[in-house]
Amino acid sequence: MLDNFDKSDTYLDLALPIFKQLKDTLGIIEVYQSKAVNLINQEKYQESNYILLNKQFLQLLETDIESYMITCFYITTNYLGLNQLKNAQEYAKKLYDKELEKKIKKLSEVELANYNYYKNSTIMSFAGYYIRNKETDAALNQLSQINKTLIDHDLYMKKEYFEDYISIYQQKSNISLAKKYTDSLTTLTDQLLKQEINNNMLLVNDNHNLSTTLTQNEQLKNKYLYFLIFSLAASLLLIVFIKQLRKKQQGKLLEKTKENIQISLKADKLKQSKLHIQSVNQKFTENIDYSLSDILKEKDAQERRKKTQLLKNKLHIKKVAENDINTYNNLHAITPLFFKTVKQNHPNLTEDDLVICYYLHIELNNKQISEILHKTIRSIESKRYRIGKKMNLNVKKTTLLDEINKCF
């Protein structure tokens, strides 16, 4: 997985001088923020803050309020990961600042909704910190500050909200309240399942069609691979124009839907744009570039098939991110042998646990899994920790991924 981060940093290093030459301040900020997020995903919080707290970088933030707001959120997250609560609270105050909120309100409804989203995410991060340290009263105090109107329209954040309350009341041994939020979580999960089922069936059909195409059209596939490699190389030169086009498209879409979509849904739209366009599309094309080159160089037929299967996995991740497909039943329909084998070796794992194990098995990191399941990185980290506990895993000797791979 470190190779993926290294490759991502390589492309960021290539993009940085282009933005500097064009004097594109926002582009430069996004490069440094992306590098910092890569380090957060590797749990290198100190190195991430080294980038974000650089004086030159902080000077750039003076030109863009939204970038300043997001950076405060990342720095707060880093300090919580380092267990430096006072420093985390200091930067959270910068995000909660009334003057900052007034400035954002003067911009547009979209920026305000985005601000409220990051404010809610920061509160959830503090709640998670207190839960990990078994400070339940402090965690409850944090959750009481959540913007209920916004969270009601962000079902995945609402799911994490319920999960935090369940953890708190389990620590307090308050069975009745824990059951109350468990019932609410079950109802919410059923609601999300209904939304996802149709897209899941489409994924199964797409995977079948992809497999048929790759098997029957080898010559056509090679031509397509050469074309795709050329397109990916050219995309670096067009990065500035693509970014401008993306902004124009977003502006037109927001204008058309302004009368029908509420502020909280606009925040969700902006979040999806940030996550899917910036994180999925850019990193996905970088990873595909590497995979396609590797397949073309491979002469051994068996190894080529293995690498082609890995490419199909990556395409599967792309489809999942676009269609919100993550349920156990549909993943089980695609790879039943994996779920059967892991369940036999670890019968106490739940369906949600097995879904996490599946994505780890196909070499996804915490960031990618959080995007697919629409959870925070912290939630995925906590889930992995609980799975390790269920497996009686000795983390000093064996990693969770190694334990999963032992089943095969």
Structure report:
The protein has 408 residues and is mostly helical. Among the domains are: 1-107, Serine Threonine Protein Phosphatase 5, Tetratricopeptide repeat (Alpha Horseshoe), CATH 1.25.40; 326-408, Arc Repressor Mutant, subunit A (Orthogonal Bundle), CATH 1.10.10. Helix content is 83%, strand content 0%. The chain has helices at 2-22, 25-41, 45-52, 55-61, 65-81, 85-96, 98-105, 109-132, 136-143, 148-153, 155-171, 175-216, 218-237, 239-256, 263-297, 301-323, 328-334, 336-345, 351-361, 366-373, 377-390, 400-405. Helix 5 (65-81) packs parallel to helix 8 (109-132) and helix 20 (366-373) packs across helix 21 (377-390). It starts with a helix and ends with a helix. The model has no long low-confidence stretch (mean pLDDT 78).
SS-based structural class?
A: mainly alpha
Q: Report the sheet with the most strands, covering strand number, pairing sense and barrel closure.
A: none
CATH homologous superfamily annotation of the domain at 1-107: Tetratricopeptide repeat domain
Amount of beta strand: under 5%
SS summary, helix count: 22
What is the distance, rounded to the nearest whole angstrom, between the alpha carbons of the first and last residues?
Answer: 20 Å
Report the strand count.
Answer: 0
Radius of gyration, taken over Cα atoms and rounded to an integer in Å: 22 Å
Query: What is the residue-mean pLDDT, rounded to a whole number?
Result: 78
Question: What is the name of the CATH class of the domain at 1-107?
Answer: Mainly Alpha
Written as H for each helix and E for each strand, in order along the chain, the element string is HHHHHHHHHHHHHHHHHHHHHH
Helix content: over 70%
For the record, the CATH architecture of the domain at 1-107 stands as: Alpha Horseshoe
- Assign the CATH topology of the domain at 1-107: Serine Threonine Protein Phosphatase 5, Tetratricopeptide repeat
* Low-pLDDT windows of residues: none
